[in-house]
Amino acid sequence: MSEPTRIDESVSALVRGAQAGDEAAFERLVQRHYGQIHRWALARTGDRDDADDVTQEVLVRLHRHLARFDGRSQFTTWLYQVTRSAAADLHRKSARRDRLTVKLKQEPVPASHDPREGHDAADEKRATGLVRTFLEELSERQREVFDLCDLQGFGAVEVSAMLKMEPVTVRSHLFRARKAIRKKILESCPELVEGYGD
Q1: Are 124 and 188 members of one domain?
Q2: Rounded (5°) CA angle 91-100-198
């Protein structure tokens, strides 16, 4: 029996044990792959602190979702996808403020003098903070669709391919996300929400 085969069988045994609730097997599985996960995370983020955060998130997801691994691919292939997803989520969260600020700055500026002009920067900051706060209250799918469509600028068809769902489903999630955020901002600061999400 070759060395790679023995390693594969050893990992498979640990996975089966962890899926069955054996915490010791789970710990050994983590010990075996921790360095690999961290290297992948560092390659995806380019920052050691971010890589640490991604690695911890991967371990949480691994504990929660290991049952989803069905053995049809190599465990490391599945684990890489989990790491890639966690890194992408971190990137979206850390970049969300910048994207939202850019989006808000793209709004048309009235040609006539606005007596509230001096408050624009403060209002923009408040709106950014509110949207960021309320995003966390959306469902994971709505948050993901809103981020991709409204913050990153992808079209519904592109997002449907990325998330493997029908375009009509993407639009439905986006509509609900916009409606929910608009409602929450309207309840908190009605002066900031005029025209938002129409």
Answers
A1: yes
A2: 130
Nearest to 149 by CA among 92, 82, 108: 92
Place of tokens 């948050």: 143
Question: Rounded CA gap, 85 and 80, in Å?
Answer: 8
The CATH number of residue 124's host domain is 1.10.10.10
The tens digit of pLDDT for each residue in 72-131 reads 888 888 999 999 999 988 888 776 656 665 655 565 544 444 444 445 556 666 666 667
pLDDT tens for 145-164 read 887 788 777 778 888 887 78
Identify how many contiguous H helices and E strands the chain contains and give both numbers.
8, 0
Tally of structural domains, the chain: 2
State if pTM tops 0.90: no
Confidence class of residue 34 from pLDDT cuts 50, 70 and 90? very high
Kindly state whether residue 170 falls inside one of the protein's structural domains.
Answer: yes
Report yes or no on 108 lying in a domain. no
Please tell me the chain's helix, strand, coil percentages from 3-state DSSP, rounded to the nearest 5.
80, 0, 20
Cα(74)–Cα(145) distance, rounded to whole angstroms? 29
Q: Does a structural domain hold residue 163?
A: yes
Q: Is residue 141 one of the residues assigned to a domain?
A: yes
Range of 61's domain? Answer: 3-88
